[in-house]
Amino acid sequence: MQAGGRILFITMEARASQNAGRVMDGPTNPMVTPLLTDLYQFTMAYAYWKAGKHNERAVFDLYFRKNPFGGEFTVFAGLEECIKLIANFKLTEEEVSFIHKSLPGSCEEGFLNYLREIDCSDVEVYAISEGTVVFPKVPLLRLEGPVAVVQLLETPVLNLVNFASLVTTNAARHRLVAGQSKMLFEFGLRRAQGPDGAIGASKYCYIGGFDATSNVAAGRLFGIPLRGTHSHAFVSSFMSPDEILERSLCSSDGSSTCEDFVTLVHSWFSKIQWLKSLGGIFGETNQSELAAFISYALAFPNNFLALVDTYDVIRSGVPNFCAVALALSDLGYRAVGIRLDSGDLAYLSSEARKIFQTIEKELGVPGFGKMIITASNDLNEETLDAIRKQGHEVDCFGIGTYLVTCYAQAALGCVFKLVEINNQPRIKLSEDVSKVSIPCKKRCYRLYGKEGYSLVDIMTGENEPCPKVGERILCRHPFSESKRAYVVPKRVEELLKCYWPGKSGKVREELPALKDIRDHCIKQLEQMRPDHIRRLNPTPYKVSVSAKLYDFIHFLWLNEAPVGELQ
């Protein structure tokens, strides 16, 4: 987003001027324009136009075929950005000119005039709410409209949903492993795939259950809480406490001033150095590290959190932190805690906690034993799970590379398939049954059982009656004849809602605030049966079709599949 940023934002301003009167902001990334698509979308649009088919009413489903990361659930994200794209979809004259140059020379002027006029005013978008737990084959979005226009939306919409849903799911999986009681911070900016990958990851990790980000730009754009302290470079940049020139610090209530905070720290260090209960575990600590901690505390007395592993965690970092924290306590401040960025995190966090608790008990400093311990250092699902099993005292985890890059799986694999045109259902066949599409315009429901957990998702034809609470309904696997079950739902939830009504006059769902999407995601995970979302050997969630839709799928399949001839 930053490369060539000035040119991109000027382009966006021109587009905003052209779209004067629109009530919705454009996509977060100014590179998301109608040109963010594959060339074949424009070649197909021209062929549709040439054949006089460009205004035929088409229905497309966006869905995925397999859950990521070896799990059995996915979290849907990216809807807001899709709607922003659709609300502002309009080609500029400069873009039309570029398309003209990019298409074969036979392209007629009439098609260029058509491109100048198109927008999404005749497109309808139905979608599952962002932050919802979703499953394979169920449409995440259904787009209806003129076939050429909807075809032009295919690539950008897939681009906006694929990574968003993948990284949100990754974040949710990390949250489930860490547990609800731990704080999770997204620290992936420097390792993300470029500026857009970083901004998107910060947003969608927050939706997936993370509490804060280190990414300042994401904090400004989305209102995500920010967290961060200092690096090893800050610690190693100091040589000794003699470098500290400004040594005074006012008390937290402003009633007094400590003229030499450095001396106060040294006095506390002497007290804890020979505490018998600590068993003399440290002697002289690294003085450059102590100088760095003192300087940071002088700058941020209310938010002092120290990185303690630059030299030696137990013999230097933790005791240096304790001395500074105790000096701050004398002046009415309360230090936040420490961060561990290397070593055996389970062991080191436990040892640090013992030291904090000993100081609270021996020196009578209330709350000192509850100092926050943050851990980072290339954490992922596996290391979080291992640390949890070993036993640890970490309160917060800072996770970066494996989270934002989705290191365990490169892509989600959403697809965009035509399911109906001119009210005629269409099906895509394949020798691989998993790639056979489910035809026609559908309604999708989630059926809940008596314990409050969701039991099954069911797709029906558009005109079929809605499943009713307390009434038995037959749920069938779309392609396997023997897999079927009756369900008597205690609650029925319709999944697809209208988020862009076009000219239909239908009521439009409002896009919720980011915090509300995050809360919805957390609530959704709570409504899933634990065995569906567990990390190891999860139980597959059932996705079904109604008996009537099942029969129609197989009728259409037989009707469309060519009959072979043996000779």
From TrEMBL:
Mind listing the GO molecular function terms for this protein?
glycosyltransferase activity; metal ion binding; nicotinate phosphoribosyltransferase activity
Pfam families in UniProt? NAPRTase, NAPRTase_C, NAPRTase_N
Q: Which domain of life is it from?
A: Eukaryota
* Pathway the protein acts in: Cofactor biosynthesis; NAD(+) biosynthesis; nicotinate D-ribonucleotide from nicotinate: step 1/1
Q: How is it modified after translation?
A: Transiently phosphorylated on a His residue during the reaction cycle. Phosphorylation strongly increases the affinity for substrates and increases the rate of nicotinate D-ribonucleotide production. Dephosphorylation regenerates the low-affinity form of the enzyme, leading to product release.
Q: Where is the Nicotinate phosphoribosyltransferase C-terminal domain?
A: 441-552
Residues covered by the Nicotinate phosphoribosyltransferase N-terminal domain? 35-162
EC code(s) of this entry: 6.3.4.21
Q: Which family does it belong to?
A: Belongs to the NAPRTase family.
Q: What does this protein do?
A: Catalyzes the first step in the biosynthesis of NAD from nicotinic acid, the ATP-dependent synthesis of beta-nicotinate D-ribonucleotide from nicotinate and 5-phospho-D-ribose 1-phosphate. Helps prevent cellular oxidative stress via its role in NAD biosynthesis.
Name the UniProt record assigns to this protein = Nicotinate phosphoribosyltransferase
Q: Which organism is it from?
A: Gossypium raimondii (Peruvian cotton)
